[in-house]
Amino acid sequence: MISLCSKKTAGNSKTVNTADDRVVPAHKKSQKNRNIRTGYLSRSFISLLLICMLVSLSVLVSSGCKDDEADVKPEGPERTDKPVIGLAMDTLVLDRWIRDRDVFVSAANELGAEVIVQNATSDAQEQQNQIRYLINRKVDVLVIISIDADQLVDEVELAHERGISVIAYDRLINNANVDLYVSFDNHEVGRLMASSVLEQIPAGRFALMKGSREDNNVGLVVAGIEQVMAEYPEAQIIAEDYAENWSADDAYAKVRGWLDSGMQPDGIICGNDALAGAALRALAMHKQAGTVLVTGQDADLDACQRIVERSQLMTVYKPIDSLAQIAASAAVSLAAGQAAPANDIINDGSHDVPYYRIMPVTVNAANMNEVIIEAGFHTLKDVYRNIPESERP
Ligand code: BGC
User: Counting atoms of ligand 1 from 1, which one is nearest the CA of 183?
Assistant: First the structure.
């Protein structure tokens, strides 16, 4: 606990960062040495020590040590020969992100790299601070799951100035010219959601509960939905809104508002499974859970359970293990000064950046075993937990 907090302190304290020889420019180092020789040290050293102790204490109290750590590189200027990767995460609230972190860290460790994990707990400003902290820790590569697609241009530029490669993981960072974007085909995610509901009700009236407006994936998913909707001229989108910061509570309040006002959608296309769960809770209040089509993405365990129980129509399976392994191996290659593989290119608003694109897959009651259970993503026992054994496949 204490060591976690002292690391966090280092991330937020200029004093400690500049005490790291690796980040002090040569001309400042000689100034520092002159100070030591003239005996200036004792007073300033004691003040520095006191400041460090105070800052440590205040960070301990105010942040409660928000960092999530995995195989954390020890504090201090000493370095091993291993490449060090900084993984800046949005959140660990969803199961998928825990899986992303665990697979990424173990794949990187197997390839001989260390990983410093930071969790910004959905706070975009905190993510900027954490990225700057990782840059000051002189990581070799930054892997970022951005909260706000438009807010990290300066951080990526700073990383590049310091010779640190940047991978945009799962979510693109706009106008930042990252070295690699590794993600699923998010446009296809939207196409799969829309096709599923439209195949059921081609002239349906649908509501859209989108994810966070700051997340670049959301626009891509919505574009995919709209592309398929355009092929069904009788279908309509009768309401749409964002779940701010991907908040399920916000989604619940908004879907509840639609239903309370008398809206009767045939389906609610939700940005992910957490939002789908929230929509279903709101529908349950109107005794409509199971009668209105609901979609999601991520193949969360509870969504897979709802699918076999027939309250949720579908989800989208995205092979997280592949994403995390590909990103870890790309990070290690970039750290060694080698090119990272890509199979596509995407424009970030100002630059074409290399893109490693992975295809998502529809999951419904009919293909649950083939897609989810045979892939080992969830077990049959877990998915069918609420289905009597006699009715299981
Ligand atoms: C990801 C989803 C995830 C959502 C909320 C999106 O960018 O594509 O898989 O559910 O963020 O964290």
Answer: 8
- Phi and psi angles of residue 369, each rounded to the nearest 5 degrees, phi first: -70, -45
268-300 pLDDT tens trace: 999 999 999 999 999 999 999 999 999 999 999
Residue 49, SS3? helix
Beta strands in the chain (DSSP E): 84-89, 114-119, 141-144, 165-169, 180-184, 205-210, 236-242, 267-270, 293-295, 315-317, 344-347, 352-358, 361-363
Asked whether the predicted pLDDT for residue 198 surpasses 50, the reply is: yes
DSSP 52-96: HHHHHHHHHHHH------SSPPPSSS---SS-EEEEEES-S-SHH
DSSP string, 297-312: SS--HHHHHHHHTTSS
Place of tokens 């606990």: 1
Cα(303)–Cα(308) distance, rounded to whole angstroms?
9
Residues with CB under 6 A from ligand 1: 94, 96, 170-171, 211, 215, 217, 246, 272, 297-298
- φ/ψ of 83, rounded to 5, equals -65, 145
Nearest C-alpha neighbor of 81 from the set 120, 113, 53, 48: 113
Strands 352-358 and 344-347: antiparallel
pLDDT of residue 316: 98
Helix H, strand E, coil C: the string for 268-293 is: EEECCHHHHHHHHHHHHHCCCECCEE
Taking the centre of ligand 1 as the mean of its atom positions, its distance from the CA of residue 300, in whole angstroms, is 11
Hunting for tokens 């800052």 — which residue is that? 55
Q: Which amino acid is at 116?
A: I
Determine the residue type at 72: V
Q: Model-level pTM?
A: 0.81
First-to-last alpha carbon distance for the chain, in angstroms, is 47
Distance of CA 119 from the midpoint of ligand 1 (Å): 15
